[in-house]
Amino acid sequence: VLTVANSQQKEIVEENLKLKSQLKFLNDNNFKAVAAMVIARESLVEGSEDGQDLIINKGSNDGISIGQGVVSEEGLIIGKVVDIKETSAKICLTTSQECKLAAAVQNQNKTQGITDGDLGLTIKMNYIPQLEKISVGDTVITSGLGGKIPRGLVIGKIIEIRNESNEVWQDATIEPLVNLNNLTVVTVVTP
Question: How far apart are CA 183 and CA 37, in angstroms?
C-alpha cells in the first residue's frame, strides 16, 4: 500500500513541476493557452512507428481549433492540432510525416522554410534556397507565417545539411530538443 501511495505522490509532484514550468513559459510570452493531458497515442498506419499522433483531453468546447500549435512544458513546439472533437483533439507530432510547420532558422538572414516529419525520428526543413547560409547547430523556430502558430517557438537544432550544387533548394535535418515519447502534459497555444 505504501508503494502505491509513494508512486502516486511521485506522479503528482512530477506533473506539478511540469505545469509550473508551462505556466512560466506562457506568462513570459503572453500566449493564450489551454493546458491538456495526453490521454492516448495512436499510429496513423497500423504497425508503423513513424506516424504517431497524440490525443489530448481538450477539444472545441475548450476553445481549441485545428492548426493551433502545441508545446511541451519547456515551451518547445511538439506539433499541431490536426483533428478536433468536442472534448478531445488529435495532435500530429513534428516528427510525423505530413506535420508541416512554417519555420525560420535563427541565422543572420532568418532563412525561411517548411518543416516536415522524417520517419518519426527527426524533422526535415525543406525549400531552403541554395544560396542561404545555414549551419549545423543553428536553432530552428516557428516563423509565425500562414497559420495559428506564433513566431519563435523552438522546433529543434540543425544536425545535418544536404545541398547538391545542381539543385535549387537545400534541406536540413533537425533534431527535436524534447523527448516526444515522454509527453504527459502539453499546452495548445495561440499568439
Answer: 9
